[in-house]
Amino acid sequence: SVEGVTHALRTTEYHDRDDQYYWFIEKLGLRSVHIYEYSRLNMNNTVLSKRKLTWFVDEGLVDGWDDPRFPTVRGILRRGMTVEGLKDFIVAQGSSRSVVNMEWDKIWAFNKKVIDRYAPRYTALQGELVPVHVVGVNEEATSAQKHPKDLSIGMKTVWIGPKVLIEAADAAELKEGQNATFINWGNIMIKKINKSNGKIVSVDAEPNLEDKDYKKTLKLTWLADTEKAPTTPVVCVYSIW
């Protein structure tokens, strides 16, 4: 009131102090400030208490308040969140007095919409891999757009060869005698699925690139198993949220 503030925005946990606040305002003869309350945003399975997060910092278990595993603004910005995505998320929530418990996938969905416009695409495989032997194919480098909808982002080198790798989960969806679309390559005809003790150990296939019908085909991410394009192991660091 003394500083000229007309409206105060604060979370509902301070509601019980409103009567005390207005009592002081009345006794001191000051102009009343309008208090607008809104609920806190809680993220499921996430520690948001500054006191508890301080313990991690003081114990040296994290790099600091901007550690990408931390649920702080600085932390999620290092993790890949954009300022635009964060603003869009906050605006979409609006203001409400109801307590909100939200999953993290929603905030990252807003971020995905932002970076989708300019993020280059690369291929990664995880988990158990299954080799696919493609007959009649030689090792060679081709090129593909880094972004399927924006040529200006540039091109990337894609290696093809007689042996490529796919994820075991994708291999389980393959059917003999049907095409599978290998992204940035084309249709490949699945000739035989080799199993051992009920487990897929390899797949035999042949190129069917002349067939441009990609409707209703299984879309696969893959990597050529070649020394000319060695893979890079990546370890996922899970958060402490």
From TrEMBL:
Name this protein carries in UniProt: Bifunctional aminoacyl-tRNA synthetase
Span of domain Glutamyl/glutaminyl-tRNA synthetase class Ib catalytic: 2-116
Top-rank taxon: Eukaryota
SUPFAM superfamilies reported for this sequence: Nucleotidylyl transferase, Ribosomal protein L25-like
GO biological process terms on file: glutamyl-tRNA aminoacylation
InterPro entries: Gln/Glu-tRNA_Ligase, Glu/Gln-tRNA-synth_Ib_cat-dom, Glu/Gln-tRNA-synth_Ib_codon-bd, Ribosomal_bL25/Gln-tRNA_synth, Rossmann-like_a/b/a_fold
Gene Ontology CC: cytosol; methionyl glutamyl tRNA synthetase complex
Nucleotide-binding keyword on record: yes
Keyword annotations: Aminoacyl-tRNA synthetase, ATP-binding, Cytoplasm, Ligase, Nucleotide-binding, Protein biosynthesis
Entry keyword Ribonucleoprotein: no
GO MF terms, alphabetically ordered: ATP binding; glutamate-tRNA ligase activity
Similarity comment text for this entry: Belongs to the class-I aminoacyl-tRNA synthetase family.
